Amino acid sequence: MSISPLPQAAPLRVLAEVDALLDQANAAPLWPMSNVDTLELVRVVSGVQAKVAGLRLRAVAEVDSRAAAQGAGASSTAGWLRGHCGDRPGTARAVVALAEALNRRYPDTLEQLSAGLVSEEAARVIAGTLDEVPAGVDAATMAAAEADLLAHARSCMIRGGWRGSGRTCSTSWTPTGPRPWPRRKPGCSPAGTCT
Questions:
Q1: Strand ranges (DSSP E) for the chain?
Q2: Which of 86-90, 124-128, 191-195 has the lowest mean pLDDT?
């Protein structure tokens, strides 16, 4: 038995169903939910949001690689995002740049984002950090750096985000590996506890 690929328009049909389900979820009152359930709702929505962000970035990269936006009359993919999705100019350019970075250079980060394991913000930080690594660093070292940053991002998300519970969750990366971020908030100890 073989698995046949989904028809070309399948993502649009699936998203139409998701959209209808989200309408139902948004119409449901939240006040009857317990505190535990509302916290779980926020966590689940954040994971779904990351998955949607991963799909959007994959689609933007595909649109950009085909020059589809220009074919539709826009000056660029970023211009199309401004006109059709309401993105601000700087945001639209950043979305296109992140889509290109994740699709071409950091597919493991895109995979983790698309699985809802890291946030779009974390993916942006990881791509930006890796883009600043000096030229000449070998592929194995870059892959190890990406894996370390992904693991760090996942552990920060588990604790409540990049910044949570009064401590920062940041690292800087060097070709020899991650190291604690050298700056601390005023009133914070080197261990990250804040008063």
A1: 163-164, 167-168, 171-174, 177-180
A2: 191-195
